[in-house]
Amino acid sequence: PAPQRWASSLPVNTVVLFVPQQEAWVVERMGRFHRILEPGLNFLIPILDRVKYVQSLKEIVIDVPEQSAVSLDNVTLQIDGVLYLRILDPFKASYGVEDPEYAVTQLAQTTMRSELGKLTLDKVFRERESLNSNIVHSINQASDEWGIRCLRYEIKDIHVPPRVKESMQMQVEAERKKRATVLESEGAREAAINVAEGCKQAQILASEGEKAEQINRAAGEANAVLAKAEAKAKAIRLLSEALTRQNGNAAASLTVAEQYVSAFSNLAKESNTILLPSNTGDISSMVTQAMMIYGSLSKTQSTADSTTPETKELTLEGNTVSETGYK
Name one GO biological process term (predicted). Predict the structure, then answer.
């Protein structure tokens, strides 16, 4: 067995011994375990007492050599690690096992191979922490009888065969291409949704604008009709006041005669069909005819004004009917 790297050389019994801190010296008397020397000053009997084992109570670091292991999906891996342990019971560490370092190292290697055989290659890389904890738990179950406590186990390197490494790289590239394609499709979908939302909002705003335009146009036309009606009513009122004045009838006759004569200038401008009176060459007769029309209209109006209408409102089944009578 290889010598213990953490143990000091065995001291010679010189009756008076000084034990360093964090070390435990196991003393045998006549070949039988006698006691464990505490740090500080100690006395031994020459020839009868002999320091048999020197155990370090510090935390010990052991390199676990590289070894091959087969994963659950039949991939051969080369794995090495680091083991951290501490001696809790110097008596068990001295008499429970021949070489604690060798025993713990072999136990760590076998446990590592056993745990790796339960995992696939992908899970070995993703679950290194759980793998380390499982190895520590398995080592502590066996090393309790040796007085040794395994504190931590860390995997340093995992070497994968070249072909498997190439396939893993291809898998990573394919996964990245997949994510890029998915992100691109999601971006195109978001863009299409944004464009559709924009078109929808544009159509809504356009319809609202058209609606407002039609409302404004209708309001403008209504105002124009009201304004024309008010202007026409005002013109008729002014005309009626003018007719009631002196020589109003003569002025109205002159105006009607002028309009009657000027109407002939617009003939044949909008249609090919022309209706002419029989005496178009006689201007005076046309004016006389226009004045006769105006006179008859004036007489009819005056007759209508001389009568007194009597209006009655009758209500029949919710409808209002006006009844007009003349005295």
Answer: mitochondrion organization
Q: Is 7 helix (H, G, I), strand (E, B) or coil?
A: coil
Please check whether residue 291 is in contact with residue 256, taking contact to mean a CB–CB distance below 8 angstroms.
Answer: yes
pLDDT in tens, 287-299: 666 667 666 666 6
Round to whole Å and give the CA distance between 53 and 24.
8
Query: What contacts 115, CB < 8 A, 6 or more positions away?
Result: 131, 134, 135, 138
How far is the C-alpha of 90 from the C-alpha of 141, rounded, in Å?
18
CA distance 9 to 53: 9
Regarding pTM above 0.85, the answer is no
Q: Where are the alpha helices (DSSP H) in the chain?
A: 90-95, 100-116, 121-126, 128-143, 162-243, 248-262, 283-306
Spatial separation of the C-alpha atoms in residues 215 and 296, rounded to whole Å: 46
Q: Is 97 helix (H, G, I), strand (E, B) or coil?
A: coil
- CB-CB contact of 59 with 6 (8 Å): no
d(CA 156, CA 79): 8
